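Would you kindly consider the sequence and fold I have copied below?
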Amino acid sequence: MTINNINTIPKKTDFEKIRADFPLLQRDMNGKPIVFLDSGASSQKPQQVIDAMNDYYAHQHANVHRGVYQLSQEATDAFEKGRRIAQQFINAPSEKEVLFVRGTTEGINLVASSYGRKFLKEGDEVLISAMEHHSNIVPWQMACEQAGANLKVIPINDAGELVMEEFDKLLNEKTKIVAVNHVSNALGTINPIEEIIEKAHAIGVPVLVDGAQSIPHMNVDVQALDVDFYTFSGHKVFGPTGIGILYGKEKWLNAMPPYHGGGEMIETVTFEKTTYNELPHKFEAGTPDIAGVVGLGAALEYVQAIGHEAIQLHEHELLEYATQELQQIEGIRIIGTAKNKASVISFLLDGTHPYDVGTILDKLGIAVRTGHHCTQPLMNRFGIPGTVRASLAFYNNTEDIDRLVEGVKRAKRMLL
């Protein structure tokens, strides 16, 4: 799973050369060179990831953990190497604590279901925030309904920041888990998860962090955070779809019942009784997405080779530039003005609908996301139907921003 051509990533971080690693960015859209500003929904894939997956299918494919023959052992080695890469990427203490899931959504569902079945009871409370993605709302609603527990919500201010004074009031002896995102997919707000974890742990409450929008943009050290659960999706971090990671502290994972039943997650099976496998296999029933793990490993190695510090600096400069340039357009309203933001800028153009602006941008070769971004309660908080969202990655540049700005100006001329 070693990345081919790793030396093509320059020591001085030439992001224009790195951009050339992404085949899709070389194509046109609607007759124009593509400007891809929807990485928050799903990032593009470097050729190194594509090659790693193709090589696995062409030369290594067999089922894992089950075969004594060489090919199966090679596939198992590649699969478990992906786990070790992910462990190192987030600095997890043990490989046992790194579970493969389909993505952030399944990671949250696994915890809500398994933790909820074990630890939630009538009258308990689950604490989430007002800026959560639906995937960190609905699973907890389901778990609360099943247990007779109550869902409580940390409010936000007009800038799109958590009101921590209200968090302090909501956190109490009835709270059984706190589940918040690290970075808002709709606003770009970077939440103070260190403070949240510290305060929750002070009264013995575990914390789950949705890391889908943070993992592509910043270094995440689960030991330094002391987080109990951290989950993210491969496709957000330049890897394939359908694969992701759930990190969980061993003490919680051992205490939780399995999420799925089937092959691999068992130790012994009789018609009378089944005993379960040790971690991490206890939570990995059935044949896994082996090629997805290979691709995810290649993607994480790719990001590590560039370096989080260089990525953060480049993306911060792009976000500042985009914010500055868009604000010069009369009638632009930016939704989400937190002091601490990652690579998302959501906005509205007065007198227009986000869908209409997005459609015009599409005709100009500019890909943005429009709508509620799976955060309907958040949109209701601001009293809007949705936004136009430009989400950045390290393969974007100032030319992309310039074309976005010109596209919004053209949309304004056409729609108003």
